[in-house]
Request: fold
Amino acid sequence: MKNQRKIGVILSYLSQGVHILTGLIYTPVMLRLLGQSEYGLYQLVASVVSYLSLLSFGFSASYVRFYSRYNEKGESEKIEQLNGMFLSIFLLIALLCIVCGVVMVLNITRIFGSGLTEAEYVKARILMFILVINLSLTFPISVFDCITSAHERFFFQKLVTFLQNLLNPFLCLPLLILGFGSIGMVMVTTGLTVCRLLLNMYYVLKKMKIRFSFGGFDFTLFKEMFVFTFFIFINQIIDQVNWSVDKFLLGRLSGTTAVAIYGVGATINTMYLQFSTSIAHVFIPKVNRIIAHNEKSRQVTELFVKVGRVQYLLLGLIITGFIFFGKPFMELWAGKSYDQAYYVALLLILPVTVPLIQNIGIEIQRAMNKHQVRSIVYLLIAIGNIFMSIPLIHQMGAAGAALGTAISLTLGNILFMNWFYHRHLYIDILYFWKNIGQITLSFLLPILCGLLLNHYLDVYQPKFFVLGIMIYTLCYCGSIWRFGMNEQEKDIFYSVIRKLGINHGK
Reply:
C-alpha cells in the first residue's frame, strides 16, 4: 500500500504536470479560436452548471470513513451493502441533476438577466444542456473513485486522470479549428467522461471484483452518513461561492468580456489548486487509520508538517515565479487584452497558498468528525464575499471580484483555520510554521535573483522571458536544496530518481 501511495503521488504530479503543460499550450490557441466573448460565455455557463454538483451533498467524502470502520471489523457484508447504497444514491442524484438541468435550460433568461445577447442565449442553452449531461455522469463515477481510493488502488485512478488530461486538449483542438467552438469542446469533455465511467466500472467490477448489495437500504447508516456529510455539503457550497459566484456576478453586472478576463486568471488558480491537492488525496486512508487508533497522536502533526513542507517546496517555485514573471506571461500567453488577468490570478493564488499547504488538515478534520464548526464559519465568510464583491466589481471589474474572494480566504482559510487546527485538532501549528519559516528563508536568494532578472532583462520578449524563467528555476532549486530541504525530503527525491531508473550519487 505504501508503494501505491508513492506511485499515486508520482502519477498525480505527472498528471497535473501534463495537464498544466497542455493547458499552457492549448489555452492561448483556444482563446484566439473562440474569441473573448465566446470564451466568457463558456466560462459563465460552466460556472452556473457547476452549482448542480452540490446535489451530491458531500456523500462521496464519507465513503472512506465508513469503509475503514467496516474493514477494521472484517464486516464484508456491510461493505457490500455500503457499496450498493452509495451507487443507488448517486444514480438517483444523477437523475435529479438532469431534471434540474432541464429546468435551468428552460429558464436561462431569468438566470443571466440582461447580461447576454440573443445570439449568446441560443448558444448558452446548448452548452448548458451538454454540460448538465456531463456533470450527471460524474456522480456514478465518484462512487467507483471512492472504492478505488479506499482500497488504495491509486495507480489506476491516477492513470485514468492522466489520460483524460492528456487527451482532452488534443481532441478539442481539431473541432475548434473546424469551427465547432465551445459546443465542440463540451462534447469532447462529455465523451471522455463516458469513457472514464466505463473504465471505472470495468476495473472495479471485473479486476477488483467488488460486490454491490442492493438487498436492503440501511436507513440508520444513511442517517449517520447524512449527519457526517451535512457540513461537508456546506463546505461545497462555500467552494462554489468562492470559485464560481464571481463569474456569475460579473456576467450579470459587467458582461462576458469581464468574465473572460476573470476566467483566464481563474484558470491559473485552478492549475495551482490541482497541483497541490493531488498529494493530499493519496493520504486519506492513512489519515483515517491514524485517527481511528488515537486522534491525539503526534503522528497527526508529523504528517501535517511532512505533507505541508513538500507542498510548500513545490508551490513556492510557482508562486514566487508568477510574481516576477506572471505579467509578461499573461501578455505573451493569453494576449494583451487579458493583461488584467494577472492581477486576478495573483489575488487568488496568494491567499490560497496557505490552505493549500495545509489541505491534509481537511482530511484530518473529517476523520475526527470535527469539520462542522469550520463549515459554519466558512459559510458566513463566503456570504460576506458576495456582499464585498458586488461593490468591488463596480469599482475594479474582474480584479474587484478576485479581491473580495482574497479577503474572505484570508479571514477564513488562514486566520480562523490555523487557530482551529491548533486548538481543536491537536496539531502543533507553531511547529508547522517554524518549519515553513525555515523553508521561506531559502526563498531570499531566488527573490533577489527575480528582482535582478526583471531589472536587467526585457522579460516581455519571448527569448528573454524563457531565459529568465530558466535562470530563476535553477536558482530556486539550488537554494531550496542547500537551505530549505531536510534529509528526508532529499531522500524522497532520490527515491523518485531511483524509480525512474536514473543513476545518481549523493
